[in-house]
Amino acid sequence: MFIFLMSGFELELYAVHEFLYIYWYPYEFLVGFLVSALTRTENILLAQEEYAEHQSKIQSNSGSGGAAKNRKAAKPKKNKKQQRPYRAEIVFYHALLSLCGGMYKAMGALTKDGRVRLPLSKFDNEEIRYNRRFLPFATLTSPPPVSYVEFKNIRDHMMRPSAEELYSYAAKHFDQARNVLESIQNPDQEMLDLLQIARTNFVVMNVLARGHQKEVKRQPEFDFSKHNYFPIIKLK
């Protein structure tokens, strides 16, 4: 579901004014669902390892009485560090979650600030566009599909603060993504590219939060040259 939505950026299917709900959906529902599922899986595996170790101790202590007493006591095994097989994926998804949140709040701020070109209302029906974009999810049950009415209620609540506050919220998300990506040891090229995007967008959001180009309402450029899913926001 995440790749399906993000591939629309790669295929240039979305208008800029649609970016808000495209990033909102994975931020609110998909990426967190993945993190939760992987975390639960890890916890189950760890519990299974502990149970197996406990059973092994019980069996080793249930040897024959006299023979067990005369037998030389076995050296206790060193505690083996519990494995967390999905830790790297979970950390990476946390970074994606913050990037999606940053783009969602950034698009909200840019829209409220009058910097996103919107279609004329007589030629546009947002509900129809929303339903068409997310139509493939309608038959799925986990995670369940989200209606346009739910999206509209969440967006209206998010848009209550001023544009400057929304820019600050977006900056915090990009800063969280930066911190997570910087904590990853031996990052690959994609992680390094995402780190550069997070750093740059963090600066841009802070600049706009301070009122830069307040009187100029030009739509920014969204540069996807570094990554197919997340752009660098460039002021004109």
UniProtKB/TrEMBL annotation:
InterPro entries: Naa35_N, TPR_NAA35. Residues 69-83 have a biased composition (Basic residues). It comes from the Eukaryota. Residues 56-83 are annotated as: Disordered. It holds the Pfam family TPR_NAA35. GO terms for cellular component: NatC complex. Residues 1-233 form the NAA35-like TPR repeats domain. Coiled coil: none annotated. PANTHER family: GLUCOSE REPRESSIBLE PROTEIN MAK10, N-ALPHA-ACETYLTRANSFERASE 35, NATC AUXILIARY SUBUNIT. This is Protein MAK10 homolog. It comes from Drosophila ananassae. The gene is Dana\GF13474.
